[in-house]
Amino acid sequence: MPSTLCETAYVRDSVRATVKLLVAGAFGVGKTTLIGSVSEITPLRTEEVMTQAGAAVDDLTGIEGKLTTTVALDFGRLTLGEDLALFLFGTPGQSRFLPLWQDLAHGAYGALVLADTRALQRCFDTLALVEQHGLPYVVAVNRFPDSPAHPEAEVRQALDLEAGTPLVTCDARDHTSSRSALIALVAHLHHLTGA
Amino acid sequence: MSPVSRRRDLVRPYVVTGGRARPSRNTLDLVTLLTAVPGRPAAALGPEARAMVELCRGGYLAVVDLAAHLALPLSVTRVLIADLLDSGHLAARNTHRPAGTPADRDTLERLLDALHAL
Ligand SMILES: Nc1nc2c(ncn2[C@@H]2O[C@H](COP(=O)(O)OP(=O)(O)O)[C@@H](O)[C@H]2O)c(=O)[nH]1
Ligand SMILES: [Mg+2]
Description:
heterodimer, A: 5 helices, B: 118 residues, alpha+beta, three-stranded antiparallel β-sheet, elongated, DUF742 (chain B), DUF742 domain-containing protein (chain B), hydrolase (chain A)
């Protein structure tokens, strides 16, 4: 266990507001990559252990013998200006991680939902979770070399997006592109507060 | 066939917390910032709690930062932090938007400007 961390691991003393955004999507869609390309800290990984409902949950003694699942989530951080810290949470989109979503969605401003046109249906669960938690969102289609080029209207229809929900494309490996996707999300959230 | 359905409900188990499943307070968001209160010796604490206090002597860390640096599950981290707040070893700075309140337009505006400037 480390007992000290380098200075950059700490949140600046002057930070007075934290904003939480989720980067959500299926496994392998590019969440960690996107967070890494914009975060000022090396993305950190944390885990939550869950056990099947009904098993004893107040004690971990003998947990090895119980049915458990570990959910990994990673996060990054950006200090913006003097007093604002943005936390980005890579959030796995499977509905069985509902308990974790409740935590993540608590106080979150919104979500960037990553989609992969090679398998759009893989983000249905994520969209359902985001909507269920009342989080405003923007969909970013992450481009892979073998991604079919669907017209935007087709993607919107496949995902059943409301007319007001922005759809952007991005390359999660690229800082500028990832930043643009985040800007699209924050602009949308800002727009919603004025509605 | 496995008797376990793929869509089973998952709940969280708890370690290192004396068997308690819930923290003593429920205001701890994942991004609540924590720092160590000076002059509070950590020597008598358990190893995880002591490590937390020591990390927090260097400045502010979020709940998730502590979970990640100490490789502890989030739920466990939370229970330990709540204890350390109760005992006065840690102090929290609540910087996040309270759940259920509308998004703050001013914060979003500043966020947007800062992202453009990045
Ligand atoms: N071509 C391309 N590859 C990407 C992109 N985003 C992620 N990848 C690759 O896809 C793989 C999975 O990405 P990862 O970020 O780990 O996905 P996660 O499971 O959602 O966190 C990695 O090998 C990435 O390098 C992208 O926008 N374009
Ligand atoms: Mg990942």
